[in-house]
Task: structure prediction
Amino acid sequence: MKAKIFLIFVAAVTCLKVQAQISIEEYRSIVLERSLELQNAEAQSEKLLSESAKQRTAFLPSLSASGSFTTDFKRNDGADLWGFSVEPRIEQTIYAGGGVRAAYRQALTRYAGSLQDGEQVALEVRFAADNAYWMVSAMQLYKAATEEYVSLIRSLYDVVQERYSEGYVAKGDLLQVEARLSDAEFSLIASQNNYEVALHRFNSLRREDDAESVVLINSIIDSLVVPLRVSLEQIVARRPDVQSAKSSILAAEAGVDVARSSFNPSLKAGVSGSWQTYSPNQSGKTYLDGALVVGVSVPIFHWRERRHAVSAAKQGVRQAGIALEQLYEDVSLEEADGWSALLSSYSQMQSSLKNVEIASENLSISTYSYQEGQATVLDVLQAQLSWIQIYTNAITARYNYAVAWSAYRRITAAE
Result:
């Protein structure tokens, strides 16, 4: 009995490996591939890439054309009633106060930041996938443990019922076992429901409607080696959200130049031409004409609008810097909490394994003693209850460690 109970973990894993269908790596890949959050982040990056390409066109000359057609209602000295004009124009911005280059630089940094945002979303999606995977594994083990618990009580109930029919035990003993069996069956229903809920989330993340149970290659009872602790300098160097915050500062600094440039002198040059009829159009003949146009714009007085615009843009830089500093503090606290949770859950897991062995041995002794007439039914029921409580605690400890392990990898942006 002791060996049977103590090796439930091993038997569960062996069964899963024989009928293996999906590993945690495969599940992560599926969730990442189908994640709507990640697709939305990619769409945002593509949008900002297009905006940066749009800003780049400001460096290049532009070609435009305008035209008109006119007709009069009455003849004027024998002239034709109609006339037309076509005016193409090539224009190049020579200097725009530094605004063109600053706007392009701002667009590029925003695009770079969006790529980092996408990496951060991928980290969160991977952690959600890990959590869902470990939850299904835990719920499978909870269900298997509860089924074993029901089986133990049912076996005891059969023995007590037989002894009661032979007159060796009182009816009170039979009722105690029957009540405990009913309570165990109730718990089994709850564990089955918890497994179904975990399975729904598992399938929802991979965007499948398959309601059938899944067989996992990996399990929370697999050996997950405690990772080495990562320094804050290493974490901030590879955390995507930190890199995105740095890009936000660069974009805000470029925004200061954009705000300032609109109040600087600007210079444009262009060549325009025209093909049109004479006015009045007496012969229907047309002529060509052209011109070189150089335009200069110099802002002179705008009621200190430039100062206010630049000041507002500089406050944006300040806000971005404060956000980065706050993020450093948040990352430091998150890493410390994650490391503590990892070590605590690992210690609980190690302790729970020894407790399961003790509870299994106590159950075996109590069951044998009852069969030999040296223990009461109450002693066996208490040993069974103690076993299921300690066993479920062991499952909880392993689940907590698996989640803490995945969480620390997310915090440190581990590959």
User: Anything to note?
Assistant: The longest helix spans residues 99-165. Residues 259 and 310 are 6 Å apart (CA to CA). The radius of gyration is 38 Å.
